Every structure is written in C-alpha cells, then in structure tokens.
Amino acid sequence: MGLFSNSGGHASAAQLARIERKLDALLDFLQVEMPVDGMEDIRAMAAAGNKIGAIKAYRERTGVGLAEAKEAVERGCERPG
Questions:
Q1: How far apart are CA 31 and CA 41, in angstroms?
Q2: What pLDDT, on a 0 to 100 scale, did the predictor assign at position 7?
C-alpha cells in the first residue's frame, strides 16, 4: 500500500500535513530557505476577508485571467503552472 493509495487516489489532508511537517524538518536540518514568492501581501488581503482585492492584485501581478486568479487566491496564491 503506497503513500497515496487511499480510495480516491489522493492523499488525505492528514497525510499531506505529515509530509509537510517532515519536509519542513528536513529543510530546517539542512538550513535551506525556500524562496519567497512575493505573494504575502495578497495572502494577507485574502486572510483579512478582502478576497476581491486579493484577486485583483494577483491578476495585476501575474497577468492571469479572472477565473485563474480566483482559483489561485482560494488555493493560497499558488502560481499557475
């Protein structure tokens, strides 16, 4: 049984949380700093309840369309890839 072998083929939130904690511990041990993506201000806007402002700022910064920006803000400002 593999890591992602639950019924839907997707990792559960608990599994992902464990993976993230392990990855964070490994990065700390190796003293690796993740690059900053420059989206902290947009995340803060969304967290403060200003979702429309966050979407607008995300669109201006990345040049993506409205639907893509909305999805990205709802996911925590992941860059489209």
A1: 25
A2: 53
pTM reported for the whole predicted model:
0.54
Q: How many CA atoms does the CB half-sphere of 5 hold within 13 Å?
A: 3
Task: Give the largest Cα separation in the chain, rounded.
Answer: 44
Quote the CA–CA distance of 15 and 7 in Å, as a whole number: 14
Length reported for the chain: 81
Please enumerate in sequence order all residues whose Cβ is within 8 A of that of 77, keeping only pairs 6 or more positions apart, or say none: 37, 39, 42, 43, 46, 54, 58
Residue written as token pair 């409205």: 66
Record the tokens describing residue 61, joined without a space: 């910064």
The answer to whether 58 and 46 are in contact (CB under 8 A) is: no
Three-class SS state of 32 = coil
